[in-house]
Amino acid sequence: MNPVSILHLRIVILAFVCLLHWLPGQAIAAQQKQRPNVLFIAIDDLRTELGCYGVPHVQSPSLDRLASQGVLFTNHFVQVPTCGASRYALLTGRSPRNSGVTRSNQAFYRGKSALSATQTVGAQTLPELFRRSGYHTTCIGKISHTADGRVFEYNGKGDGRDELPHAWDDLATPFGSWKRGWGIFFAYANGRSREDGSGIRDLMEFTVEQDEDLPDGLLAQQAIQKLGELKQQEQPFFMGLGFFKPHLPFVAPEQDWEAMSRVTIPPPPHPEKVNSPYWHKSGEFYSYNMEYEKTRPLDQAAQIKTRRAYLACVRYVDRQVEKVLTALDKLGLSENTIVVVWGDHGWFLGDSALWAKHAPFERALKSTLIIRAPGVSQAGLKSAALVETVDLYPTLVDLCQPEFQKTEYPLDGISLKPILDGSKTDVREAALSYWNKAISVRTKTHRLIATTGKKQPTKLELYDISETPDPVENLVDKQPEQVQELLKYLPSRK
Predict the structure, then answer these.
(1) CA distances from 447 to 103, 291, 475 (A)
(2) Given 83, 139, 313, 400, which residue is catalytic?
(3) What's the distance, Cα to Cα, between the start and end of the chain in Å?
(4) What is the DSSP letter of 162?
(5) Alpha helices per DSSP H over 117-243
(6) How many angstroms separate the CA atoms of 132 and 458, rounded?
């Protein structure tokens, strides 16, 4: 063989070897590109007060449209009716019966259930599992308990460590003129905050003109920018986008207040205090400065104005969701991106003379859940299945099939994929929620609340939810058979 032929042969062999090395890399990149992205939108204190849930006086066209494109869950219940503990259940996939987190807002980094800063064999949280599987993970806003994913106290003290160790490639929350996480969470206009030392603590403020004059507008803007960057990457992405409103204080642009001022807002249907050990004085709500007298209960005019303020904030957030979803469409990402909208718990709007959350009743435990999974979810399906927040972790694993699926603890939820694709209509007979020592059992028709102890459950309350979501009449004495039936769902005492 002449020298020229030998040279050609060597070139061919070298090219073949390079091709063998290149093809697996391209195959992996293609596989990652085909995996669905995840856009997980958390909205703080969002109860099912939306048009898609049949509430006519609410202006929520963006969320209503998303519900028409995906699956709307009409019986979704959180594990705990407070921000931190509810998000702990979501992100770890663990029920309070196993984690012991039935109230704490600092569960991620304090106490026996605190997450380890040292990487464990199994993923401790949902975004960590996706990150280990090659997803680019981005946190914007409130996904865990703190407003930006960093551990600081309300007053700014703390070391700023990651609240979810090993979970996020980017902590991308913009601070604007508020300068820090809890500042943007408790924000008023012009860089002022409930936690800035000035003493401002007004219940509501509707003065700014531009969406970006307030934090949620900045969050939407940042999310759109990051989506543009993520589109250019080979990796699939998991974006957690946590909007702050309608959490207190009620602050939104003037246009949202003006729009809702033209709408007739009904008073709460059952504004009377209930005889229950779980009724509380709404301390979080009444700690704010109000332009009307702080009576318990508030007079009807004050109730309606407060309800209007909450719904103005819902309208503001709905408009921010629309911007992000529009960007997702324009970037050509919608067809391969799962979108989840989740409310971290419900909220009392004067119902039962309660405001805020922190009680094991229907209004605080029931929250918004919408899932649009391209190629899987049935458009416009309204599911009445009893689902829990802990179901979201296994659902996203089932939909995305990440390479790494080992978790530090077993997941306690059930995948909702069979509900999304219509192959099942139910996944459980009863949904369980927790609040301190109380366990609340919800079936399709009733809610039982029981205080657990070393002996038999006590302080029993039974409500017929098919009649009203509010705890109007305790039926324990009238329906003892129903009580015994629901008690069977309580976890066995260890």
Answers:
(1) 20, 36, 10
(2) 83
(3) 82
(4) B
(5) 126-132, 181-185, 215-231
(6) 44
Q: Which long-range contacts (CB under 8 A, 24 or more apart) does 60-65 make?
A: 60/314, 60/315, 60/318, 61/318, 61/322, 62/318, 62/319, 62/321, 62/322, 62/325, 63/318, 63/321, 63/341, 63/368, 63/370
- C-alpha span between 141 and 43 (Å, rounded): 10
> Can you list the pairs that 190-195 forms with residues at least 24 positions away whose Cβ atoms lie under 8 Å?
194/249, 195/154, 195/155, 195/156
Q: Tally Cβ neighbours within 10 Å of residue 445.
A: 11
Length of the chain: 494
DSSP codes joined into one string, 356-418: E--SSSHHHHB--EEEE-TTTSPTTEEE---EEGGGHHHHHHHHH--S---BSS---S---HH
Please confirm, yes or no, whether 52 is among the known catalytic residues.
Answer: no
Kindly list the structural domains of the chain, giving each domain's residue range(s) and its CATH number in brackets, ordered by start. Answer: 36-429 (3.40.720.10), 437-494 (3.30.1120.10)
Is residue 166 part of the annotated active site? The answer reads no
Quote the pTM value: 0.93
Residue range 424-467, pLDDT digits in tens: 999 999 999 999 999 999 999 999 999 987 778 999 999 999 99
Contact call for residues 181 and 173 (beta carbons, < 8 A)? yes
Q: Please identify which of the residues 52, 76, 139, 145 carries the catalytic annotation.
A: 145
